[in-house]
Write a structure and sequence with these properties.
159 residues, single chain, two-stranded antiparallel ribbon, 7 helices
């Protein structure tokens, strides 16, 4: 692997740098909420269109709920990606995820046989409870230095 100037960089250093960048990116947004929300869409989308054949008994879960499952699944995927790339919309996306999870229970074959329902409930709850990391404030050493040099000699305010 080469850098911009054609110099070779060790693969191990490149992998470590990529992992560090991903961990930094993941820490600045509700990553796990987005992951649970995105993964909730998969069973909700899958089960209405699945044709299973356990042994000689064909089992078809495709029902009239296919269109509703498709809409709910696509919206959950969109909300999961929204949580990753627009963390300031986390509360809206969390509430929308919770509402879609509850709607998926009667509409989408028990919320994707409860797999999608529980995953969406966890993702929506994580999204609503996530807070952005605190930004460190500027150093207070300058403020302490100014208060110590105040007239009266004592920084505690007493005589």
């Amino acid at each position: 692997m080469t850098s911009f100037f054609g110099r070779h960089r060790p693969t191990r250093a490149t992998a470590a740098h990529a992992r560090f960048r991903f961990r930094t990116w993941r820490g600045e947004r509700p990553f796990w909420a987005g992951l649970f929300t995105f993964k909730a869409a998969l069973p909700i989308l899958y089960w209405p269109y699945a044709n299973l054949d356990p042994g000689a008994l064909p089992l078809a879960l495709s029902t009239t709920s296919g269109a509703g499952s498709l809409v709910i699944g696509v919206l959950l995927m969109t909300l999961g990606v929204t949580l990753w790339y627009s963390p300031h919309l986390r509360f809206f996306a969390g509430i929308a995820t919770l509402v879609l999870a509850l709607v998926s229970f009667p509409v989408a074959n028990f919320g994707g046989l409860f797999l999608g329902l529980f995953s969406a409930l966890i993702g929506g709850s994580l999204a609503c409870s996530w807070m952005p990391p605190d930004v460190p404030e500027p150093s207070t050493a300058a403020a302490t230095h100014v208060s110590a040099a105040a007239p009266g000699g004592d920084s505690t305010g007493g005589s």
